[in-house]
Amino acid sequence: MSAARTPTIKSRLPNVGTTIFTVMSALATECRAVNLGQGFPDFDCDPKLVDAVTQAMREGLNQYPPMAGVPALREATAAKIEALYGHRYDPGSEITITAGATQAILTAILCCVHPGDEVIVLEPCYDSYAPNIELAGGTVVRVPLTPRTFRPDFDAIAAAMSPRTRAIIVNSPHNPSATVWTRAEMLKLAALLVPTEVLLISDEVYEHMVYDGVQHVSASSIPELAARSFVVSSFGKTFHVTGWKVGTVAAPAALTAEFRKVHQFNVFTVNTPMQHGLARYLADPAPYLNLPEFYERKRDLFLEGLAQTRLKPLRTAGTYFQCVDYSAVSSLPEAEFCQWLTREVGVAAIPLSAFYEGGFEQGIARLCFAKKDETLREALSRLARL
Ligand SMILES: Cc1ncc(COP(=O)(O)O)c(C=O)c1O
């Protein structure tokens, strides 16, 4: 018998390597930097939510739930969407509970994208989109958002559309730029898509983080878009429990039926006690209705401190990210600047170029303010030295 040997495999994702997020987090730990690179809270969730999940476990709700999700959570999600955005999804046939938004987006893509289909993404964009499209055998068509303002360029989107375009992925409120699409922009998108067979994957994981009275415009609130959309959200973001990985997809019955075919043989079901706990917790809308106020205060605390530095903040209309223009401080490329900032100043940030294929330099870094006030203050006192 020959020596034990692991057969080689041809990579399905040959271009995926170590991401800048992993690199920056490792560097932050090594340098004992305040990590404002990580896109998640360093504070705990509401103890009532933990109690609700614990109670569900104690009640013995620990076995497989229905494939599409616990009915009470689907019903609560449908009611929430209807109350906020005015569109009634049928919890039985149009709402599915997923293992976070990441799985929701992958499953949405896998259920509708065939080899040779094109999917439009608007750069800068969340890092899972392109590999997801590639896994489905699709072609990623990248359209830049307008540099620095990050508004959608509808002429460029229209020019990128072809008879092979199967879907477009839109993310508002937007990671990393912290912009929020206006109703006029969503209506323009609708006008562009209506004459076509193009589906919309609407990544709305930051739907409850919008500031200064700005309203989130969900694809579900525009009937022409709702009819062709997978609307994705994440309880992890909304309730400060990113590690729980529970999300939702709302989509018309015909789209949901195809979605569930893939979901069934991918994750099958999402953990039961979390779903029951979330369903009970959702009975009170205050936690998500108060979220803008909660994060707006943190954003403003952070902005006040940034005003004492040579970093120039861009406007944050939504999400828990704050982009800063560092051109008054350094002419380094973004990735090098962020590494320098982590090593020399002790604050970790993420280069915006990481959200573009092949990079794109604008002298902008992304900082996350979903942190305890004391964490933000410590970071600000370090940044003030710049
Ligand atoms: C734009 C965007 N979409 C999706 C996700 C993933 O959400 P989840 O943790 O629910 O999978 C994130 C998380 O950072 C995100 O920023």
SS-derived structural category: alpha/beta
Number of helices: 15
End-to-end C-alpha gap = 64 Å
What is the number of E strands?
A: 13
Low-pLDDT runs of 5+ residues are none
SSE string, helix = H, strand = E?
A: HEHHEHEHEHEHEHEHEHHHHEEHEEEH
Bound molecules: pyridoxal-5'-phosphate
* Biggest sheet character: 7 strands, mixed
- State which percent range the strand residues make up: 5-15%
CA gyration radius, whole angstroms: 21 Å
Helical residue percent?
25-40%
For the biggest β-sheet, the strand order reads 2-8-7-6-5-3-4
Mean pLDDT: 97
Overall geometric form: globular
What does this structure look like?
By secondary structure, the protein is α/β, with parallel strands linked by helices. It contains 15 helices and 13 strands. Strands 2-8-7-6-5-3-4 form a seven-stranded mixed β-sheet, with helices on both faces. Strands 9-10-13-12 form a four-stranded antiparallel β-sheet. Strands 1-11 form a two-stranded parallel sheet. The model has no long low-confidence stretch (mean pLDDT 97). Pyridoxal-5'-phosphate binds at residues 39, 100-102, 126, 171, 175, 203, 205, 234, 236, 242, 245, 247.
